Amino acid sequence: MYGNAYIETDGSKVHSILADEDPIKLAEFEARIAAGDKIEPKDWMPKEYRKQLVRMIEQHAHSEIIGALPEGTWITRAPGFRRKLALMAKVQDEVGHAQLLYSAAETLGKSREDMVNDLINGKSKYSNVFNYPAPTWADSAVIAWLIDAGAIVNQLANSKGSYGPYCRALDRICAEESFHLKYGHDNVVFLATGTPLQRQMVQEALNRWWEPIMHFFGPPDKASQHSEILMRWKVKMGSNDSMRQTFLNMYVPKIWDLGLTLPDPNLRKNEETGQWEYSEPNWDTFKQVINGNGPCNKERLAVRRMAEEKGRWVRKALLSKSDEYVTPLA
Amino acid sequence: MKINSLDPRISRAELDDESKIGELQGSEHFQTYEVFQQIKRGTHHQHVGNVHAPNAEMAMLFAKEQYCRRGAAVNLWVVKTADVFVTEYQDADIFETTEDKLYRDPNSYKVMDRINAFKARTNNA
Questions:
Q1: Residue A303 has pLDDT above 60, yes or no
Q2: Complete DSSP assignment for A121-136
Q3: Does A307 touch chain B (CB under 8 A)?
Q4: What global pTM score does this model have?
């Protein structure tokens, strides 16, 4: 479950980024990508390509791990045994996705332990939506349907990117996410077509989650040479705004179809342009939350730290001194 | 401050919201295993990814959990990544001439042209 990467774009640095790259190798690399060929782990690649990919895949992996927590809140109190089993399966899937993504990032030279360290020390980011709580069962339904839907929009685009190991991981992930989407939709529909109280519960959850969902795809893109290069290298596969448009176009009609409303009076499709119009969510809130001041940031990291601390003796006991770590092959 | 969570399991753990842990050490790496899955008897095993594990038995357990969550599978292999001998992509020229060796390709043998010409010749004679 993941939105767009928070790629720092600083147009003034573009020339220095490419200045010390071998121009012949760079041309070959770019020609390979332009021809639709994939880049594999030991291929030559520009330093900036490696750096942005590590950052992006790592953020994605952390988002899967942390993303399991808000929904996991409801495992003990899921309404009914079948839903409990399904929710557990979904949460397990998310953790499995993190494993696949950590492996893909490792092929670029950053060890899994370094990534986990950077997560629990707060150096690495993860998707902002997971810093919000899920106060009711309906919140877990809205997350499973709409956050996963947003993630699929993003992941399908990224699976057409240029880095082989990331594409392969995303292919597997997208296949599993389609279960999450159906599961989430089923839960939302059940509540939305139920008693007045159930409808009220899902409507309130939707109201709570609308701003985080609009934040999910990231701030409006500023056109810069840097993002142009990342698009050319097929690291970034679409602008934040275009992903947001795709999502709105696919899911707002489905939400309205259930007689539910969205807390934005300006939300409508402009039939002339085919584009959705909406009120910009509060991007200051977004910055506040991503910098550690959201309602659940501390809890999410504390839980992750606890898992590391309490699991450490098990890992140590299993470790054999003669084992030598090598990076995964592909 | 102790974290008061919506998740009763987290509240019970009485976590300190400012607690820090030391850096994990590099030596805590498990080795990696490459995973090969056979979906159906009679088909090839195919590489599907890798897992981190302290030994082959646990690698098998993780591989089953990670790669056989859905759909069919009848067999799994795990192989230490370190034991796999690989070619380098930069040496891909070693495969370059393979496609030129048409004498290895059944489609490069066009006998019917000769047979038809022969038949035409002998029938006319």
A1: yes
A2: TT-S---GGGGS---S
A3: no
A4: 0.91
